[in-house]
Every structure is written in C-alpha cells, then in structure tokens.
Amino acid sequence: MSKSFGAMSIAQLSVLIQGAAADPVDVAEAVFESIANYADKAVFTVLTESRAMAEARASSKRLREGRSLGLLDGIPIAWKDLFDIEGLATTAGSVVLAGDTPAKCDAAVVGLLRQAGMVAVGRTNMSEFAFSGLGINPHYGTPVNPRGTDLPRIPGGSSSGAGVAVATGLVPVAMGTDTGGSVRIPAAFNGIVGYKATSGRYAMDGVYPLAKSLDSLGPLCRNVRDAVWVDAAMRGRTAPDVVERPLQGLELLVPENIVFDGAEPGVVAAFEAALERLQKAGARVSRAVIPAFNEIFDLMTRYGPLVTAEAFALHCERLAGPEAERMDHRVVMRTRLGSRTTLPDYLRILEARRRLIADVERLVGDRLIAFPTVAHVAPPIAPLQQDDELFFATNNKTLRNTALGNFLDWCGVSIPCGTGLSGMPVGLLLSATARRDEALLGIALAAEPVIRGDFA
Hints:
- The chain is of the alpha/beta class.
- It folds into two domains: 5-235, Alpha-Beta Complex (Amidase signature (AS) enzymes); 251-292 and 345-452, no CATH class.
- The protein is built from 15 helices and eleven strands.
- It has helices at 10-18, 24-37, 49-64, 108-115, 160-167, 184-190, 224-234, 265-280, 291-303, 306-319, 329-336, 343-364, 381-386, 388-407, 437-452; strands at residues 44-47, 76-80, 119-124, 173-178, 193-196, 216-221, 251-255, 284-288, 368-372, 411-419, 425-432.
- An eleven-stranded mixed beta sheet has the order 1-3-2-4-6-5-10-11-9-7-8, with helices on both faces.
- Helix 8 (265-280) links the parallel strand 7 and strand 8.
- Helix 5 runs parallel beside helix 6 (184-190), helix 8 (265-280) crosses helix 15 (437-452) and helix 9 (291-303) packs antiparallel against helix 12.
C-alpha cells in the first residue's frame, strides 16, 4: 500500500478525494488493509466492510458525476460500540448485549454522517457500558496506547478504540461519547484532538446511554478543523458555520483549585509552557478559585456521583440477575454504588447542579477555561488489571478534571500540548460554558498550533 489514508487528517484526505487524486473505493480498501495488518486486534469490535465498500462505491460514482455531497464525501469514520448501526446488535462493549435484536436503523448521527457521504468502517472497542475512564475491557481486550514505547499503557476510556484507531492512523476520525471525559481522556492520552459538545447539541436517538443528564457526543480526530467539519454534519449542516477567532485579547481562566491536585510535574510543565505560548500570542490569563469545583465533590461525597446514580437506575435489573456474573466485576462494583443514592438525594443533586451551572456561568462569563485534560499521562495496563484498589483510584483521578465539565454542562476541546513522563502525550483542555460551542471551536482553531508547539 503506497498511502496510509487513515493517517491523514480529514482536510488532507478531502483534498485528494475532491480533486480526484484518490478514489473513495481505494481509500476504503487501504483502510481495511491497514486494519488487517495492525497487530492489536482489540481496537475494533466489528468491521462493516460490506457496508463500507457499498458506501465508498456510491461516493466514487457521485464524484465522477460531479455530484459531491461536500467535504466529507468518501471520508472513512469509525463508530464507538454504542451507536446503533442498522443490522447489528449494539453491544456497548459488553457480552451480555451480544444476543440482542439487531438495530432496525442507524442512530440519528450515524444517519446524518452517512448523508454527508462518510464511509462507516466499523465499531471501536470501549469500556464496558462506557463506565470507566481507563479503557480496560476484559471481554474484547484492551487496545494498547500506540504512543507508549516502554511498556503497554492504557488508551483511556471509555472511547478507547476510537482514540487508538485515530492515533495509530487506521482512520482519520472516530466518533465517541463523553459522560465524564470519554472523548477528551483518550484524546489526551493518545496525543490527538477530542471535542465534547454541549449536551443536547446532537440528536441522541440510537445511542446507548450511560447517564442521560450528562451524556454528550463528539469526534476524536487529528485537528480542530476536522472536528469543526464533522460537528456541522452531525447537526445536518452542509458546511461549517464556525468562524476562526483571533487570539489577541482572548481571556483564559485557569482554576487554582482541584485540577492540579496531585498532577505529575511533566503534565504541569507541558501545560504551563503551552499557556506561556498563548500569552505571547496575545491571550490574557487570569487564575482564580472556582468554588463550584469543591462543592461538586462535596455533593459526590454526601449523595454519591450523579453518573453512578443514573447508571444504576439503567442497569439495576441487570445487576440483580445472572447477567451481572458475565460483566466486568469492576463495572458491577462501581454501578452498584448508585443504589446508595436515594430519590431525595438525586433530586438534591439535580437542584444543586442547576444552581452551580448558573453560578459558574456568572463567574466565567465569556472567558474560556484552561487546565490539563488529565493530571497524569497514560499509566501501564498490567498493574491496573491486577489491583482493583489501584484501578478505582486511578479511574477517579483520570476522570476528575474532565467530569467537572460534564457536571457543569461545558463543551470542551482537548488539544495535545507536549509530553510528560516517558514521553507520553499531555492534553490541554479548553472549555466554555454551555452552548458556546461555536465560540470555543472558533478560538480553538486559532489556538491549536500555538498550544501544540513542537508536538507532532
């Protein structure tokens, strides 16, 4: 194979396809060849080669006839294993759903990207039922982080296969979901871009839930521009409507509490260096305590996490029956904790959440919030598989920074900003308050090359 099409950005590949320098059929064949030759078979749970080749042939015919559907026509995409794909059971990374009735139609966003001409190559692996930020899966295997050069390291979760599929150059984009960080964490750990939209920005029909109050979607891809293009199509737009915004005068707020607690020195150094580059490019940085951060964790201590309460409500019957024996015991243990949250407790959490969202919106205003996506780089897999106590402690720390944004209904983009321990990638998370996605993406377009610095 002369070209690794999956290793290109959407923008690079689109130029080739739209200019007739690459045929969508050849692109799809090359992608499947790359997947077949890739040693780690835990990245995908299923490939949809027949569908993909039919979609690629249709795209090729349109382009030859001058009927391109736009920038995404012929571009391969992989879907996390909780998006309905017509004719397949949606397993959500679990063996207990493998025998379910196949989906009668695509999930809404799968259908929208199909209408934009994208080619669905398969489903990527994930943490079982999306309930872990580490990406370890005992049923379908754990994809190995391709950035690790010393020993096998976690991919991040729950969109584990999505992060690895893009980082290793198998596909240019993979779709994930994000309830507590499941797009942004694997993006940071694998050195790619991950965009989590404000909850409700996209149709959720046909997406297997975790916690409906917190669930959101977003792509993992090579750069912010790719995310902008995919975001437009996911909302039924024929072209992006995000405008790149200047960095001169950009106001960034860096929290002084919670997000740097226990952070690895290499992570802090990479973040601060990127922040300094942004300041030299014209951004203004202020630092302050965000009291809501502490109150969120106080609420979790008092009433239990919102995500755990809603996950338990979803799975309580399953957990009480024989299916629990076939599930990852760590997922079972964590989900059962949700039984401790009473209905009055749950309502108190929701009321406090509404108040805290309003409080933080007043505090932040039009500023963007910046801090490390994760306070540490991707740790080794083996110790986490062998020690449940270490697993839960690491999972909590991994999810800590990103979960704040889900609770406060922020949108966010994780952008690689350098490397930390063992040369592993570090992500800088830019966030904005709810429904300011266009502003966030417009600033991220301009900020990305500055944030990346020398990171490839």
